[in-house]
Amino acid sequence: DVQQRREQVRSRGRLDGTLEEARALLDRALGQERAELFPDPSDDARMREAELDSLPEDTSAAVRRLSDYRWRSRAAAQSFEELRDLLRREVLDTRFQGMKEALANSTPEDMQRVREMVDALNGMLEADDRGEHTQADFDRFMDAYGDMFPEEPKPRNLEELVDSLARRAAAAQRMMDSLTPEQRSELQGLMEEANAESGMNEALDRLSGALRARRPDLGWSGGERMEGDQGLGMGDATTALQELADLAELDTALNQRYAGAGLDDVDEEAVRRALGRRAVDDLERLRAVERELREQGYVEGSRNRLRLTPKAVRRLGETALRDVFADPSNTPRPGGHADDDAGHIVEATGSTRPWAFGDEEPLDVVRTLQNAIARGGAGSGVPVRMRPEDFEVAESERRDAAAVCLLVDLSYSMALRDLWGTAKQTAMALHSLVTTRFPQDAVQVIGFSDYARELPPNGLAEVSWEPVQGTNLQHALLLAGRHLDRHADFEPIVLVVTDGEPTAHLERDGSAAFAWPPSPETTAATLAEVDRMTRRGANLNVFLLADDPRLEQFVDEVAHRNGGRVVRPDADRLGGYVVRDFLSRRRRAG
């Protein structure tokens, strides 16, 4: 999961690890030098101590001042050289991943070879700008210096090498932008000192300019939020920000929210870098599934406008219902009534309507034959052939028709508690049950977070939780009440699925007011809608998905005022609880 991976990368640690380590090494060197000077009574020792005492607090300025200092302590000189070596390797690691490890215990000859590699790389880029570069030039470069680019797979040409180096250079700049101004200034000074000491300042500046000119489309500025207790070195911090950039790019491609998007746009190499080889295999399987769904008629549309067909929605609802009733003893029979009188017809209304699957009303034979004759053409001599669309049924007054409202919490906490998938399955299962077994019923599914909204049947499979603050049960009950009022002669059935007490309500101007802990205004507005439901004769059965004393106190008050029930189901059995509760109330209504 891309979002989960991004949070893992962000939690690796702080970005100031190199600065922290440099300060520690400098303090160690100064302490060792002072310990060497303290027993010496000479004026030279006192002058040296005064020089150390006058060093600036800024680490980079102190290192610059000490570059020509003649250390009396051999241990201090070694600590200071360790500091300079750390900076050289970290600076190079921000440009060339893996260089920090490659240059551990390096010799002057190793550093000379790095300088030669950077010069050769700049020369190759300049030759390419003049149109003189060839693949053979690149191959010779990799033969000589390929061990300095340990990533796999290795770049196959100059373009791939530039892409890799430019992405890292951009990440290094974003790493610097993520620091505080004070940290950035101090670390920049240390980097400049390290580059000057290694003799590569000018060469690295040329390389940075060339990479930026070739890939200006990359994010060369902007900070990132990093968390964790461990301080990351500059190279590791750059790697983390490079991964975050890859994940952000991959997230955009996978979300398919841009014009003309499609799974073919997803870069397999970006998937491999961010999520590993197995994720590339998953992507290919996903592409195969998309092709199969198209061929089977379950999705339609083009590229980023893919949508589920009615066939797919019906299939998903049936699957959700089957999963909910995996135990055959829980499976409702068609109609689901408490007795064998399937229709409970009181009297005909005199009107007819098109027949729908599951209808129990009697056929209107005259209207059905008229439809078939009109379609076939009267007097044509052709035998009348009837089709399903010709059938009409006689409408009747029914005592057992129900107006069903399912109110589902869409708030962020449902996702945090891993409850949203179960809630969606429950909504789809209930909708499928009502529409296929009780077609005379009127069902409405309402989702609520900071605001509430009706969830269309064809959109249930695609709806998701909403990353906003607020649990606006008041608005959800308001919408449910309107549905009940439109079907005043139907038996009201209202079911609420939630994991949190109400924290939002509608103001007079229609805006949502959020407060945590819940304000008295939110509680009063919500209970006012509960009281309206009670006056309609609608009992509220609340399915509680969290152990929260405040929430339990609130729903107990709802049950006391309304007469409904509070159910505390296991989350993985929510669907069974809701559907069985509906069937129980449905049978009583019949």
UniProtKB/TrEMBL annotation:
<dbReference type="InterPro" id="IPR036465">
    <property type="entry name" value="vWFA_dom_sf"/>
</dbReference>
<feature type="domain" description="VWFA">
    <location>
        <begin position="401"/>
        <end position="584"/>
    </location>
</feature>
<dbReference type="InterPro" id="IPR002035">
    <property type="entry name" value="VWF_A"/>
</dbReference>
<protein>
    <submittedName>
        <fullName>VWA domain-containing protein</fullName>
    </submittedName>
</protein>
